[in-house]
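Good morning,

Attaching, inline, the backbone tokens for the sequence recovery test we're adding to the shared suite. The designed sequence is right after.
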């Protein structure tokens, strides 16, 4: 088993070409003064090249990305044939991962407050340290996510399609759906872009589980990126013949409470005014039907029937013509 070293900073110059190293990187401290550390995996190729960062579990219950990074480092990367450096952060949000919850320990969504604040709240300080100590080391970023609790996602990409590099990174993923979504809402991706680091978000399935097919899809896309950046000698394997691009999207919500049944499946193309969901009361009586406001594709949807007013129904993508 590899030795894991405690560090306060990532210093790539201290790692020799051809080495694979694992670290515990200290970010902040808990109330006992004990360091809160995140795992860092680094593979530095034999030759010079770019630094590709891959992050997962920004939300503590989004697990597929953890397995993607583990498999990449333990099974796939051949340091002798690699140029550049891959930095993997299998778990960004350690406090939430330990508690098996989505949000940070103070109830904050870590992916909505980036880049944080140097002298901010518990979550803001953690986010700021992550930006300073980790994101600033990357030349490119692939940020792995899943759906939230009670929802399911297709394998889809969030990317600013107006920028040539992020557009290319998105199309290398062989995704089911690519959503044009410029960052700017406090995300890890947005914080990276502000640092001049081209970044995309890869939505790899559902929370609280490992999904073998989704994990394999995530790995295949990363291999294509490594090949495109000339970090590995492997050929790209591109099959985007079934990929659907969306110019934008919207979430649909309930306007009353009850038990929700969504009638459409992931990747279904629905037409305007198509019946997409129904609500029943606790006695089983039908109380509301919901219809598609426009033509689009189902990117994600709710699978939790218990729906108070304002619950999500589905994520509808507007297909690029």
């Amino acid at each position: 088993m590899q030795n894991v070293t405690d560090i306060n900073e990532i210093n790539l110059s201290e790692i020799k070409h051809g080495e694979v190293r694992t670290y515990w990187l200290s970010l902040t401290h808990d109330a006992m003064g004990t360091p809160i550390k995140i795992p860092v995996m680094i593979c530095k190729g034999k030759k010079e090249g770019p630094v590709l960062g891959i992050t997962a579990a920004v939300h503590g219950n989004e697990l597929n990305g953890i397995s993607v990074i583990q498999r990449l480092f333990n099974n796939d990367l051949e340091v002798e044939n690699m140029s550049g450096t891959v930095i993997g952060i299998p778990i960004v949000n350690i406090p939430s991962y330990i508690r098996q919850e989505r949000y940070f320990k103070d109830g904050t969504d870590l992916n909505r407050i980036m880049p944080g604040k140097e002298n901010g709240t518990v979550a803001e300080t953690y986010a700021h340290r992550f930006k300073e100590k980790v994101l600033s080391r990357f030349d490119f970023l692939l940020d792995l996510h899943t759906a939230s609790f009670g929802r399911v996602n297709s394998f889809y990409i969030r990317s600013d399609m107006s920028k040539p590099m992020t557009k290319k990174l998105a199309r290398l993923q062989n995704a089911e759906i690519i959503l044009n979504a410029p960052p700017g809402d406090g995300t890890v991706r947005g914080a990276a872009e502000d640092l001049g680091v081209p970044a995309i978000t890869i939505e790899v399935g559902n929370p609280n589980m490992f999904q073998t097919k989704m994990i394999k899809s995530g790995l295949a896309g990363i291999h294509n990126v490594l090949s495109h950046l000339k970090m590995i000698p492997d050929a790209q394997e591109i099959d985007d013949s079934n990929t659907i691009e969306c110019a934008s999207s919207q979430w649909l919500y309930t306007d009353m409470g009850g038990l929700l049944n969504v009638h459409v499946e992931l990747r279904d193309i629905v037409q305007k005014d198509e019946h997409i969901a129904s609500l029943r009361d606790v006695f089983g009586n039908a109380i509301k039907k919901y219809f598609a406001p426009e033509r689009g594709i189902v990117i994600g949807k709710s699978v939790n029937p218990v729906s108070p007013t304002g619950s999500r129904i589905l994520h509808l993508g507007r297909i690029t013509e």
